[in-house]
Amino acid sequence: MVIPKRVFDALKLRAGDFVEVSAENGRLQMRPKRLVDIGDYALTESAAAKVRRGEAEIVAGRSKPWRTVKNELGH
After folding, report:
1. One-character DSSP codes across 31-63
2. Are 62 and 49 in contact (CB under 8 A)?
3. pLDDT at residue 35, as a whole number
4. What is the pTM of this model?
């Protein structure tokens, strides 16, 4: 699909971006869709420490499947 340059610029699109196109009342609507890239978000130092601690627990074999934890919580 070729998007006119003025529309492309107005939507602040970049080459390769995804868009959602829908038809409503005889008109097309186009919305930019962004995929979340984990690399776009940086963890705080304390959050990164929690992730490292959790990964260490998994490596050490001290983890439980979610189903087990859920049952232990009574849900």
Report:
1. EEE----GGG-PPPHHHHHHHHHHHHHHHTT--
2. no
3. 76
4. 0.41
